[in-house]
Design brief:
CATH topology of the largest domain: C8orf32 fold
Largest sheet: 7 strands, antiparallel
Helix content: 25-40%
Radius of gyration: 27 Å
Oligomer: single chain
Structural class: alpha+beta
CATH class of the largest domain: Alpha Beta
Strand order of the largest sheet: 1-10-5-6-9-8-2
Number of helices: 15
Strand content: 15-25%
């Protein structure tokens, strides 16, 4: 093994410090001073390296950019929304009326929209020694060089390169502050993008959309994410690759990678061009996965009235409203993001601890039946369009907050509960629309019980799975919604 000179210095310094523990205090103080000097030197060397990388990249940006043809947005997966409940009668009538959810959408929407947009004709009206902004409820005070809001002389190669060179040597302290915030609050890829967007929209008023795009590309690159600015007609656009497939967003194919197009409005019929390579230090791709650890903004205990009624006790888990606001405008992605998600620890703790008490002493069949009925009746029904005006799948914490969802969201909640509380395996069954369902597709679940359980079932990889439909109200284990009973569903597995 070969050590670098830097590593050797660290080892020698560490050994030296270790041998000096029992020596006089002044000697320890001397070595601490040496260590601090060494640390500062390493920091300066890194900053110098970063500054040179930005300077080199600024010159690279002045070279002629390549032309690209856009690719049409990939259509979203087949919309899975159960027919209105009145069109599919419940298997059994509800024993008692349940309270209707009244989610506080206003606070989430206000946080998602961010602060009021500044007005005025200057490039920035909010700059000083400190840049202040509200990030989904978290007040950020970013050290920002006074009046550093450079304008683009042009959106072409020369203008953009000069603009990048101006920022590359001036923003290191601000970049470090934002990096530490993102790490401490465990932002995922969408969180980093939103952070870059909100910073850019605080620095530049709406009259400067090109500068906003340029700043977003710059910030994401400094955080080592692959991101580019591109030109389309007379406007800059942001080009972002994601680890996951994104639907309903057009993209440029750069090599074998999709760079999705985000902008403040541009002529989509015009040609696109962008630089040939990402920033040299950008070696990461944004991911839309959620591991359940993101922690943004304020938290609050929020009662879920229907669950309180069904459980016979107040059910008010702690939820993170900042996270919910950040998820409000989440892009359309495949089910793997939602069915493989992690659940925030505080929410999961309340839900799982409560339900463990409720199913204590039950065998697996009774326990799964109890959870199935709870999910069937614990949420009101709403279509995506009614709730959000567009297609949107919900994370588990969103289902509990809004108190309303539909089939694709309920299978996520139910499968999570079954796996966590019983350890049983769950697969998903996706049904295409047919005449009996009026062309509406659907998604349900099937559970791999350890023992023999009666009902509609099928074999998958040598194991018997029994139907459990969280959207077929009051239908027990082994019941298939009648309009899909004759259909051959597609099995999907998300581990």
């Amino acid at each position: 093994m070969h050590f670098s000179e830097t590593m050797k210095k660290w080892v020698i310094l560490g050994l030296s410090l270790g041998t000096l523990v029992p020596t006089a205090a002044q000697h320890n103080s001397d070595w601490r001073k040496q260590y601090e000097t060494f640390r500062q030197q390493r920091t300066r060397e890194f900053q110098d390296f970063k500054a040179k990388a930005n300077a080199d990249f600024a010159e690279f940006l002045k070279q002629q950019w390549k032309n690209f043809r856009p690719n049409a947005a990939v259509d979203a997966p087949v919309r899975v929304v159960m027919p209105r409940p009145e069109q599919v009668p419940p298997a059994e009538p509800a024993k008692q009326p349940l309270p209707q959810p009244k989610p506080d959408l206003d606070i989430v929407q206000r946080l998602a929209d961010g602060m009021e947009k500044p007005s005025g004709s200057s490039a920035s009206t909010m700059l000083g020694a400190t840049l202040s902004l509200d990030f989904y409820g978290d007040p950020l005070r970013i050290p920002w060089p006074k009046e550093l809001a450079p304008r683009l002389a042009s959106i072409g190669e020369e203008g953009f390169g000069n603009w990048w060179g101006t920022l590359g040597t001036e923003c290191e302290t601000a970049i470090d502050y934002l990096s530490r915030y993102a790490e401490q609050h465990r932002l995922n890829g969408w969180g980093y993008y939103q952070l870059a967007r909100k910073v850019s929209e605080t620095i530049y008023t709406p009259e400067y959309p090109d500068e906003r795009i340029a700043m977003q590309a710059f910030l994401l690159s400094q955080w080592r994410f692959r991101a580019r600015a591109g030109v389309c007609g007379d406007r800059l656009v942001l080009l972002l690759p994601f680890r996951e497939q994104v639907y309903a967003v057009p993209y440029l194919l750069v090599g074998a990678e999709k760079y999705y197009i985000y902008s403040y409005g541009h002529d989509r019929n015009a040609g696109y061009r962008t630089y040939a390579n990402d920033f040299a230090e950008a070696d990461k791709v944004l991911s839309l996965a959620m591991d359940g650890t993101m922690d943004v903004g304020m938290k609050s205990r929020i009662e879920v009235p229907r669950w309180s009624a069904l459980l016979g006790e107040t059910f008010a888990p702690t939820m993170n409203v900042g996270n919910l606001a950040l998820e409000m405008d989440y892009p359309i992605v495949g089910g793997e993001v939602f069915y493989q998600q992690g659940t925030p620890a505080e929410l999961a703790g309340t839900v799982l601890e409560t339900l463990r008490r409720k199913i204590a002493g039950m065998d697996e069949t009774r326990a799964v039946g109890y959870l199935l009925n709870l999910v069937q009746n614990g949420f009101g029904y709403v279509t995506d369009k009614e709730a959000f005006g567009r297609q949107k799948q919900l994370f588990i914490e969103e289902s509990f907050f809004y108190g309303r969802n539909n089939c694709k969201d309920r299978v996520g909640v139910f499968s999570w509960l079954v796996r966590e509380l019983t350890g049983l395996d769950v697969v998903f069954i996706r049904y295409e629309g047919n005449a009996a369902s009026n062309g509406v597709s659907h998604i349900a679940c099937a559970v791999g019980f350890r023992g023999a359980v009666e009902g509609d079932a099928f074999q998958y990889k040598g194991r018997r799975y029994v139907m459990c439909d969280p959207t077929y109200i009051n239908a027990g284990i082994g019941r298939t919604m009648p309009c899909y009973a004759a259909s051959q569903g597609k099995i999907e597995v998300f581990n």
